[in-house]
């Protein structure tokens, strides 16, 4: 176990030099106070949980005090935003403080989001507000608990520093952990500025630090692109299977590790709606729920373009072709599990699609509770319960008959089926209204609700005594919240 004084830093990205990032000191926030902390994330750094009780904790994780071995730097990148190329983005309000090396030999980036102005701040103020910091914190940890790869969140620190958005709010700092903060847009930056030596240096860094197995392949860069694509196919399959809508899939928000990254106006679906658009400034629905699949593919093409100095175009095209079949295989696999199947049958894909079409037609089926309830009783009884949420009852009964026949072919007893299904179908989901309630309390200085929500979501599959209200269907007002895109 480490203390705050004994963390080991090994700042590999900083050593790449000034072409990749710029040294910047964090700008302190006034009266830092710890809002919420993730014990699971502390463990990634080998930090003793007791350390969060120390006063210096909030000072260090709000950038008001620095470790002597930290080397705070703003990373440069660019990216395609809503389809158009933005030549220079970079960390406009985030700083990579350094990389903490844990006992398992893993390096974890300590990234401070909301740390003040950098050379990449453009028109922004370099700050993050409490509201958006809490949203990112909750989502990172909730996704992780659901088994969906994500950047992690160590803690949120609030302050009395005023920040202007639509109204006056207060500045907060989020400490984000990830094994890398390199994005698709990092490669695009060096490609479009024709810095091909740096492009190669970045690819070599990512290979050595994050994809060492690709170095054993005859063509390491090809193997790297293929691995990034494979991880993204699996990630997007998980988003689609669990109803997660990212909202801003710009290439600067796509991690080279294939993890969920950079949280804005994200949402988990409540009632199933494939066309759901969670980002209210996304007028054309470019990042709607169902578009996440083609958009991920599009983003991988943008990355492929940036890698053309390292990999032959024909090879890149060949690898890109793998995306959709890989995605589909992962998605089908996840959905079979969610439906309680342990085997694969030819008709499964159609059965899944018919179910979603029925949900879509009614827009009255809670996407998460449907699966949870389906596992709660034997198939025939469970179907009678979930049936009530469908509008096309005839259609649902026809589907139900086929589902029943399919389930009977599985032949497992109900106790085993329930255990299997409950292990993949969460009871607790980060619904927008739950986040909003916790944020409203935190803005009043009451951090208990956000801490409790985080706690509940860290064990989403386990029924927790006294936490029934978190498992309810959202109230009508809670389904149609307009979440501010400002952050
Ligand atoms: P995002 O939409 O959060 O992915 O941010 C896109 C770009 O804008 C990134 O380069 C951010 O660093 C930058 N950015 C967002 N908000 C601010 C802010 N308040 N101050 C400075 N830069 C910002
Ligand atoms: Mg971003």
Automatic annotation (TrEMBL):
Cofactor(s) this protein requires: Mg(2+); Mn(2+)
Keywords: ATP-binding, Magnesium, Manganese, Metal-binding, Nucleotide-binding, Nucleotidyltransferase, Transferase
Reaction(s) catalysed (UniProt annotation): L-tyrosyl-[protein] + UTP = O-(5'-uridylyl)-L-tyrosyl-[protein] + diphosphate; L-histidyl-[protein] + UTP = N(tele)-(5'-uridylyl)-L-histidyl-[protein] + diphosphate; L-seryl-[protein] + ATP = 3-O-(5'-adenylyl)-L-seryl-[protein] + diphosphate; L-threonyl-[protein] + ATP = 3-O-(5'-adenylyl)-L-threonyl-[protein] + diphosphate
Pfam families documented for this protein: SelO
Positions bound to Mg(2+): 253, 262
Entry protein name: Protein nucleotidyltransferase YdiU
Keyword Transport: no
Keyword Transferase (UniProt): yes
Species, as recorded: Phytopseudomonas seleniipraecipitans
NCBIfam families per record: PRK00029.1, PrtAdtaseSelOPseudom
GO molecular function: AMPylase activity; ATP binding; magnesium ion binding; manganese ion binding
Catalytic-site annotation from UniProt: 252
Superkingdom of the organism of origin: Bacteria
Binding locations of ATP: 90, 92-93, 113, 125-126, 176, 183, 262
Entry's family note: Belongs to the SELO family.
Record gene name: ydiU
First-tier enzyme category under EC: transferase
Database matches in InterPro entries: SelO (IPR003846)
Listed EC numbers: 2.7.7.-, 2.7.7.108
Function noted in UniProt: Nucleotidyltransferase involved in the post-translational modification of proteins. It can catalyze the addition of adenosine monophosphate (AMP) or uridine monophosphate (UMP) to a protein, resulting in modifications known as AMPylation and UMPylation.
